[in-house]
Amino acid sequence: MFGEIRNARGERLDYSLHEGRGEGLVVIGHGVTGNKDRPFVAALAEGLSAAGLHALRFSFAGNGGSEGRFAECTISKEVDDLGSVLAAVGERPLCYVGHSMGAAVGVLRASFDRRIGWLVSLAGMVHTRAFAEREFGDVTPDEGCMWDEPDCPLSGAYMRDMAAIGSVVDKGADISVPWLLYHGTEDDVVPLQDSQDIVGRAPRAELLARRGADHVFSDDAAPMVELVTGWISLKMG
């Protein structure tokens, strides 16, 4: 349907398309150390397709089956990756769903890119500097790894970008489109407080706190899939 997608650096971005009906499209981006094949990401895409919506889940460069180096991954680079995906799919009604760091990417992109008509943040990261310091403050950049995962080296570029962004909380005021924030009360990676801090900044944002859910909806992704699919279906018509 869309052919090969490459970012501004020429790196091929791996994606899977779940067919629906009509022209509308939901693009799904993952979080740090993740990829398009995380179970809850695939489950959401399948749920959207079953509801009649086209859904495209993709891996940012350096992740999963996409080209590029993980050590070069930063939020700023992924904002550009998302722009390349939006350019490849053409002008159409479009919703972006981002998980964790991918949600921060969505906030930054949607704050200036009017191609995004609806926005969903799943366990969305807001305070980037605080996250990096909390999770990786005891790891030496360019020597250690994220969460002791050998395939996920912690780069100085990543830490500098997280610090430079600091927080996307003020960007909430620039999000004028309908926006759903969905966050678990038992999230021990990105606290619910992140979503609570930004939801009041945007005029059309709403927050649903899911009791008992963790960062990756590991116990049961079905409630998230049902709620998010229903919200998107209603908003996109």
Radius of gyration (CA) equals 16 Å
Number of DSSP E strands:
7
How much is the average pLDDT? 97
Ranges where pLDDT stays below 50 over 5 or more residues in a row are none
What is the makeup of the main sheet?
7 strands, mixed
Task: Spell out the blueprint of helices and strands.
Blueprint lengths: L14 E4 L6 E5 L9 H12 L3 E5 L16 H15 L4 E6 L1 H10 L7 E5 L5 H9 L19 H10 L13 E6 L7 H8 L5 E6 L11 H15 L1
Parallel strand pairs: 2-3, 2-4, 4-5, 5-6, 6-7
Antiparallel strand pairs: 1-3
Short description:
The protein is of the alpha/beta class and 237 residues long. The protein has helices at residues 39-50, 75-89, 101-110, 128-136, 156-165, 192-199, 222-236; strands spanning 15-18, 25-29, 54-58, 94-99, 118-122, 179-184, 205-210.
Task: Please give a structural write-up.
The protein contains seven helices and seven strands. The chain has helices at 39-50, 75-89, 101-110, 128-136, 156-165, 192-199, 222-236; strands spanning 15-18, 25-29, 54-58, 94-99, 118-122, 179-184, 205-210. It is globular and about 50 Å long. The mean pLDDT is 97.
Descriptive tags:
seven-stranded mixed β-sheet; 237 residues; alpha/beta; 7 helices
